[in-house]
# Entry
Amino acid sequence: MGHGGGGALSAELVQNVFAPAFGGEVLHRLGDAAALSLGGLRLAFSTDSFVVRPLFFPGGSIGDLAVNGTVNDLAVSGARAAYLSCGFILEEGVEIDTVTRVADALGAAARAAGVEVVTGDTKVVEAGHGDGIYINTAGIGLIPAGVDLRPQRVVPGDVVIVSGAIGVHGVAIMSVREGLEFGVEIVSDCAPLGGLVDAMLAVTRDLHMLRDPTRGGLAAALNEVAAAAGAGVVIEERKVPVPPAVANACAVLGLDPMYVANEGKLVAFVPRQHADAVVDAMRAHPRGAEAAIIGEVVRDHPGMVVARTGLGGTRVVDMPLGEQLPRIC
Amino acid sequence: MGHGGGGALSAELVQNVFAPAFGGEVLHRLGDAAALSLGGLRLAFSTDSFVVRPLFFPGGSIGDLAVNGTVNDLAVSGARAAYLSCGFILEEGVEIDTVTRVADALGAAARAAGVEVVTGDTKVVEAGHGDGIYINTAGIGLIPAGVDLRPQRVVPGDVVIVSGAIGVHGVAIMSVREGLEFGVEIVSDCAPLGGLVDAMLAVTRDLHMLRDPTRGGLAAALNEVAAAAGAGVVIEERKVPVPPAVANACAVLGLDPMYVANEGKLVAFVPRQHADAVVDAMRAHPRGAEAAIIGEVVRDHPGMVVARTGLGGTRVVDMPLGEQLPRIC
# Structure
């Protein structure tokens, strides 16, 4: 299971199996989306498969995830998502009513994200060879001139900004899957980020790097960027927004919110001179109301992420090995 | 299972569930690939999921299918396939060696088809919730100026051409799955069709419609075009190339080769004045050596496909309801 968790084991599979077999120069960059040149245009192209259990959860469904997961990969590459493909793998015996509810959710999410589903495919596998519904989406979008978001542009001095509360999606899934109650219902943050990215790029096109911290959470996202940038990252633990309900649930479940998946948040690496203006623009947008500066990029400990704790100490924030919460997207 | 078979039940699912939920104007055209406008370019965009059993079969593997299935959907829309995405859903416990062999086959097929895999994703599901490996690919390509392939352009008088022997892929899968032997090994025709389409377009850009007859076979492809064109199709049964080994296997298995899937063939609807030149160009290409004119488009019986039998009679070639051979791609 760990090989699908978005952590070190996933990275190993890509680097040892997939990249040697079929990876070219673009795949080796390993961005959230591929930045391509086609007919003189700069395109972003990205794909994700969705195997979440259960299919419906507080705040969304596999249909919402299938849109927002791919749309957000395009958004954090700086592209305006334009078109989606959609492949369904249905398990024999799944209720048509369930398929319809998922399709309706997917359609509503696409309209909310301003993207059109233009091509699709359906396969059916025998009962016991699937799990109700799996969905794959791929998306394409145009990258505006002057936008160049990639971890290699991240340099010491850059400010690290997170767009809001972390850990919400993973805990929402776990609470419904395990039948746990934490006093208040924890609702997934699953949402499209294109509008927020537009607002940030309106401040300056010179953002260095964006990432949506999904599988592996904020910890995996920060580690991937630190490794690719060859720089260190220092964050102030108490500045990372964690809702009390999420903190409580994580304490009960034995989880660290830094490693829990998000589906409607991004982390940005921004030149220091633009940081305050970018945070202001984010806070003026509904998806960034709780945006916060959480740290900075440093010359020390390249490739490593360090958290300053509330008590004045420091701890290393490791790359997760596998996934503490399987099948949350 | 029938809803995934590419026949009438699949069409029902798309028309009653998916199109109302998330279909826009492009999806409603229901082509093999979507023809899009983006930044002033004409793009084709297509997706397919692959759930074939077994993963390896005579003439190919799920990795070859994953490339050629999507590349051919682009080719028959007239586009030059440029980039592929690739999403793997792995079942917990699948051997890394198996994943590596599939990935290697996928890489070799991509190189043979002249397409680059640029973005990917991997998910893992628990043992018993998958079937080794499922793959989704999506592909994008440019449509050259002057190329406009769609069933609405098909008119009475058009000549129907098939690029070679039909029924081979489905029978190859069934023979290995059921452990049947038919004297000679039947090898899948899984292959990329971009080069053949290029050769045809070099004769004239005024081809009306191409389709790759995969699930549902030649019968489903002809019926779909007849319905969308609002015209009738008449074929001469004895002109349809069926290899003796496929005919024998179909007799044993109780199948009609017209309904068996192909993975390296196309059917073309071509204006009469270009038909002979197009067939000559196809026969000069390795993937079209057995190209044959098999029939024509007529004003009579709009939406219906009729075969003239060797005995001088006629029979209706129905749209298949479901899939006689599940999970052949």
Notes: Chain A touches chain B through 70 residues (CB under 8 Å). The longest strand of chain A covers residues 80-91. Chain A has two domains: 31-142, 151-316. DSSP finds nine helices and 14 strands in chain A.
